[in-house]
Each structure stands twice: as C-alpha cells, then as structure tokens.
Design goal:
By secondary structure, the protein is an alpha/beta fold. The chain contains 25 helices and 27 strands. The chain has a seven-stranded mixed beta sheet, with helices on both faces. The chain starts with 10 loop residues before the first helix and ends with a helix. It binds zinc ion (2 copies).
Length: 775
Amino acid sequence: MQCVTSTAFGPAELLHRLRARGSGTAVSPVTHIERVPAREGRTAPWPAWTEPAVRDAFVAQGIGVPWEHQAAAATLAWEGTHVVLATGTASGKSLAYQLPALNALATDPRATVLYLSPTKALAADQLRGLNRLGMDGVRPATYDGDTPREEREWIRQHSRFVLTNPDMLHHSMLPGHGRWGVFLRRLRYVVIDECHTYRGVFGSHVAHVLRRLRRVTARYGASPTFILASATSGDPAGSASRLTGVPVTEITSDASPRGAVTFALWEPPLLPPSSGPSALDDTELGQPIRRSALRETADLLTDSVIAGTRTIAFVRSRRGAEVIASTARQSLNEAVPGLGDRVAAYRGGYLREDRRAIERALLSGELLGLASTNALELGVDLTGLDAVLICGYPGTRASLWQQAGRAGRAGDEALAVLVARDDPLDTYLVHHPEAVFGRPVEATVLDPGNPYVLGPQLCCAASEAPLTDADLELFDGHAIVEQLAAEGLLRRRPSGWYWTHRGRPEVDLRGTGGAPVSVVEAATGRLLGTVDHGSSHAMLHPGAVYLHQGVTFVVDDLDLEDAIALVHQEEPDWTTHARDVTNLSVVNVRSYVDAGPVGLFLGDVDVTNQVVSYQRRRLGSGEVIDTRPLDLPVRELRTVAVWFTVSPQALTAGGVEPGEFPGALHAAEHAGIGLLPLIATCDRWDIGGLSTANHADTEAPTVFVYDGHPGGAGFAERAYATAAEWLRATREAISSCGCDSGCPSCVQSPKCGNGNNPLNKEDAVKVLDIVLAAL
Ligand SMILES: [Zn+2]
Ligand SMILES: [Zn+2]
C-alpha cells in the first residue's frame, strides 16, 4: 500500500478544486472564507524542580523542552495549586500533567496518581504514552469495566498511576474505598482529562463524584491536587471550579506552534426542481430544497482523496458517518478501481481493535479519508491532517474549533470546511460568519444543584460513609437532605445521615437511564458495535436498516431486557425512518412573565415519548413504500420546559386564522428548537418540543420546548432567561428563508414525530411577531 507523506495541494488550491465541482451553478457554495494565521511556538526550560530521570524520559521521546504553557501549568500543580490547562487540540496537554505527576512518583516512592478520562479509549491511549516513557516503579494500569477480576487486586496493591473513568470511580472505587485505602492515603494528584466533556447532566453527576472522591480521600488523610485538561473553552477556571468544588487557576495561553488554516463556510447548492430527491437528501417530505450536507460532504471527501489529501469528515450521527464513507468509497471506486479502499468510517461504538486499526492506517497514510462521529474529539492523538470537513455545525463553537484543530501541521497550511446542513441554525451561521468567528467559545455548562442529580448523589455519598454537617456543606445539600429522609432514603442519627437500605443506590451518571444496546449478528454471534440506550428505539427497532462500516444489516429483534439487537446482513433497497408520539403535562410553574395576551413560562413538566411506527422509503427516490407499526414501550421523563402561550384572540387579530393555529405554532416550535443552540449552547438533539392549538394545562395555544434530560440540564432555563433574543433570531431565520412554504432550513425538522405536518411558515412569523411585541 502506497503511503502519502506530504500534502498534494495547499488549502487554497484544494478549496479551488472543491469549488470547481460546484461550477455551473450560479451561486458559489462558499459563503465566507476566514484565514486563521499561523502561530510560532514558544518554549520554556524544564522547570528547576524536574528530576533528571523524568526529564530524560521525555527527552528520549523526542521532547527536547516543554512549551511555555506546559511548564507553567506543571509548575503550578507541582506547587500544589489546582490548575486547569485549556488550550487547543494537539497543544501537548498530556505533558503538563505527566511532568508533575511522574516527578511526584519519582521523588516520593509511595505517592500515587489517579487519572480520569471520559472514555476507555482515551485512558488506553494515555497508558501507552506512560509505558513508552518507561519510568521505573510507576506500574501504570487502566482500571475499568474490562479489567479482569484477578488483575484488579494487583492494581490496587501495586499500581501507582491508575487510569480510570468517572463511571468506574462512581460504581466501583468509591463504594469499595476500603480496598483502595492504601492507594487513596498516598494520593498526590487527580488528573481530569478532557474536562469540558463533563457538561449538562453528566457533568453535574461527575461534579458530585469528584466531591465524593475528595471526601473519601480526606478520610484517609490525603488532599490531592487537581490537574484538569480542557479544550479551549470560555471561563475554564469557573467551569473547573464548579466541577471539582475547589478554586482552580487557569492557563489558557497556547504556546504550541500551529500552521495557518483556511476556514471556509459552505452552503450546499439548491437542487434543480427536476432532479428529484434521493435517499441521501433526507428531507421528511421528499421535497429537497438543498443538496444534503451528507451528500455534499461525501463528494468533498471524494475530491480530497483524489487530490491525495489526508482528510477527516466529521458528522453528527453514526449513520451519517457510515453513509459518507460508503458513498465516497463508491465514487472513488468508479473513478479509480480500488481507491475506495482508502476511505473508512469511524465512530465511538466500534470495538477497540477496529478503532486502533483505523487510527494506525490513517496515521500511516494507508487511509486517506475518514468519516467520523465526534468520537475522534476525544483521546486519539490524530492531528496534522491536511483537511477537515465538518458536516453540519457540531452544536458549539468549542466543538467546531476542536474538530477544525485536527487540521494543520506546524509549518503547513490546512483547510477546514463547515458544510451547512439544511437546518435553521446551520443556515443562519453560514450567512452570519460573525456568529462563528467573532464570538468567544462557550463556557461548559453544568449544574450540580439539579435536585435529580444532587439527591441520588447524596445517597451514594451516604452509602460510602455517613454524611456530617460538613459533608452537607461540601455537597451544598442542606436543602434536600430532609426531603431524602422524608422519602425514607436517609435516616438521621447522632453521628450523621445514614443510607439505611440494603445494597447501594442505583445511579446512572450518563443520565440516559439504561445500558447501551449491543448489536449482534444473529448468524455468527459477532458483536458489531453498540448504540446508546436513548437512540436504541429509533435506530434498532425490528425492521430497522442498520449500517456498519458501509455494510447494511436489518434488525430482526430488539431485546430491551438484555439490551441486545439481533441483526442479519441484507441489502434492501429502502431506508427506514422511525416515528414517535410525545405527550406533555405541566407539573408546576417556576417562573412566568404575564404579557397580556402572551405568557412566557418556565416550569417542570412530565413528558412521555413512544416510538410507534416506521416508514420504509425507497433508496434513490425517497418515495414512501409503507408505514409499519411498532410495539415499543413508552418512555417517561420529568424535566424542565420553557413555553409560551398566545390567546386565540391575539392570534386572529394578528392575521392567523383559527384553522392555521396548529401549523403556525408547530412551525414556530421547530424553528425555535433549531435556533436554541445559538443561545443555550446545547445540542438540538438534547431538546424536545411540543405545540398545540389548545393544551389541557395552559388552556391556550402553546409552544413547549423542553430539556431532554431528567431534571433538566439548564437549556430551557437559559431559553427563558434570553427569550427575546432567542425568539427574535428564530423569527429572522424563518422570515429570511427564501423558500415558499417551509423547508428544512427554516421550519421543517428532521426529528419531527408528525412527519412535518402541519406546518405554516408564513403564520409562524406572525405568531412570533405577536409574542415579541408583547414581551
Ligand atoms: Zn425555508
Ligand atoms: Zn414536529
């Protein structure tokens, strides 16, 4: 296999080639080009406290001297200051914690270090790095769900650098802290890698797991220093302090060198009316307006590979990664037989051996193109690529820059392209580059005060050791502990609050309420991968078409009890699209604005959702073949919602006929959900919505938007607090869309459970005008 070691084309030349493909259409797909300049590296001497043996180990790995930010963060940590290093992809954050940690192990033969990563893959990667350094007496080891029982005892006794994840800490190490007593007593550092991933509900849980860790280590007489590594983010010190509960000092000045990046915003062209839809142009109504971002990205990937450019295409969904890879492979094989072999798909659910093989092949140049979910955001030190294609806005500017940061080697120029999906937020962004390039990166949002997180976590803490008043201070749990006692979960005794039940509290950090579902080939028993619990009903229902590495499977059976889907290989000429039904009832109102005919509310709601059927659609034409019923259980969610009501009189006075209420509200709901990530820095797929011409609880035409996580994740609250800004952007996105009666760029939604029916684009603008005028 031939290996490519240098860029065949510079970014300007490559962009020119990619654009040339679009020639013939009147409008250029490139809406904006931003030049991100190169940066010179700044080094620092090895800190004076560095042990010669530690320094020599790094030098032997080719690290002559550290970068300034590495030395600064390492020295703060060495002095005992909790520190967060928030710099770009490939800026060498590992060295910043390895240096003080290994130095501590070298100078104190009893000291220990605990390293936490959000994924097993990243921990495995770090273990390899430590093994390469080859320091004596460190005995680094990963300790996770895959660690054989017989090895666990050895690790507890002998390893001085344990690499694990918050789930393992929560489920195993903290409940069994007695067996870890020796390790915890000597704990010098806690390293929290990729700490920006601990956001939303998961982040709030991890914040309490870390408080539990601090409490338990204090009981053994240790008070470790925290070293956190983060992607570039807003207010890293604030987020890290909320996460750990201790004051943290930030280092944000990135002194590593970086090549220049040309960043293009790309809007796929409108399809000529005659061309008809295809399976890849995945609009709900079979009336595509724009070429789909998937298809566009697949073509850009194809052209990049033909140009000899090492390229990654990032896409939101697993299915998207599979589709891009298989489409590009097919096009490449048509151009040059065999060239398709140099493109692969990559995602988090793959087994470790598969992932490693793909990573090695891309690093060696054997693979030229990769279509990936954001699994690559974590861990794998895969940088220095010539081009990065981002299929659809990844939800936050922090993620966007992290993905784009995979492009560019020092001294070399690289290309990054954001390909807009047919979606209101993406459309808004490619026409408002100042919203992409002119704003700071978001802060990582987490809320340890969420009672749905705090309550269960207090129970976990109490089961590890009774809670004292000082502990309640630590967890900020005074307000909730009486309630837990009233519910019979905790019992007060003179020495503290006790967990009195047999067994331990069952708490899932990921907040998704279930184990991932394994996808197994029935005939061979081969495990193909996993799908998270939340997506499993929609992706793995019986009859669903499931793609793995470009190979098509059909689901025979979904066993929810055992979390297994059995599939067989088949190539049907249709795709499947699940339909669901949602109901919502208001539990209470936390806050509201009474604006005459318009009301704006924030409150707790109960949401039920059921995947009820799926459509089979013809590959190529998108024609609906049939709709088949499904028998899947209802799922329930108590969460937080923002909603507005408008009186029927105000709607008719504003020019909306009663018969159009449902379509107008539904269209406003879709666009509102689409634009919320602009305000609340969440993921569109984290949010749900419901609109109705008359809701039983509000007795008025109502649009609800809710957090898709138990207890809420702060998104609806943020929408309530910035409602005018949010709804104004929503109105602008709808009214400025050039389509006639609604399209995926404005009011259609890819996740609508009603097949995007009814929708009234024009009247949605009227509804929002009424609401904005009243607010
Ligand atoms: Zn439109
Ligand atoms: Zn809908």
